[in-house]
Amino acid sequence: MPNQPKNNTPAKFIANNRWLILSVAFLLLLYLLLPVLTPFLIAAVLAYICDPLVDKISLLGYRKYQFGRTTSTVLVMLAILTAITLLLLIVIPLIQNQSLLIVERLPSIVDNLRTTIEPWLKAKFGISFAIDSAQLQEIISKNWKTAGNLLGDVLQTAGTNSMALIGVVANILLLPVVLFYLLRDWDQFIAGIGNLIPRDLIDKTTDLAKEIDQMLAEFLRGQLTVMLIMSIFYSAGLWLAGLDNALPIGIIAGLLNFVPYLGPALGMGLALLVGALQFNTFSQIIPVLAVFGIGQLIESNLITPKLVGERIGLHPVVVIFALLAGGQLFGFAGVLLALPITAAIAVALNHAKDNYLDSDAYLK
What we know:
The chain is mostly helical. The chain is built from 15 helices and 2 strands. The chain has helices spanning about 10-15, 20-30, 35-60, 70-115, 120-125, 135-145, 150-160, 160-185, 185-195, 200-240, 245-255, 260-280, 285-305, 315-355, 360-364, and strands spanning about 60, 65. The chain starts with 8 loop residues before the first helix and ends with a helix. About 15% of the residues are buried.
């Protein structure tokens, strides 16, 4: 019998599964490079969100002069820098003021608890607060005086870990540089990636990419609008409730609204902490609770369905799980990648579901 050609099984396996192998290799490389990818991922997310704005600004101009892509990118980056600076100017004084209030009022709060709650706890459960408010005040005063040396301790620690400090500073400085080039050349990058896709897969890949982009655009840009509206609502509502620092707390609560349910809960916790330090009776805190209760009803039943819509297919529970799982597995970079990967998986599962419903296995 003539010699039969040998079946090169490994080569055939690689050829039949080349895209799966390349995908696994890419994910493995991504995992190994995560420590240095954080500024690139942050820049990519910001570039994705801001690209439509750069596109629109680049078309503006006067007579024959147009802004162009580079000028538009600079203007958008200046707007981002201004927003971050304003946010820090709002948040940092809030933290400082509340820290001072806690130091000043914590002993009096302990005394109030001892006079109001301790008799009931002692009568029912035999529990008493073994806390001396004078001693507590002395401990806080001593530690507050030594808190001024915190910056020196941080600088000393940074000196002994100079490479880690250099890495953090390098990432901070690298972020705007990467963001500038990504924003300016975003369309070129997308076109370059499209040119690498095999021609027999280009139509299907383009359709999937458009669906993923539509889902992410509706979610991210719609959620940004929701955050803005809720920041205004919470700030105005807390101001009417008479809460100190209503503006910064309202802004923080609105920004934290990006994480469904968990964000508003954290914002309400901050408002209740400030209210407990400011007000003397529980009845004064009720309007603060009412602001967040009404805000959640309006946001969940009117604003989010209108601006984000249920058609994105990402249930709030799925969003929470994706963000927490991404953070647990890959840290901050995982949080950045959680929603894009979840959107891609959701689109793939929808197509798989449609194929299954049209298959003989289902129709038999």
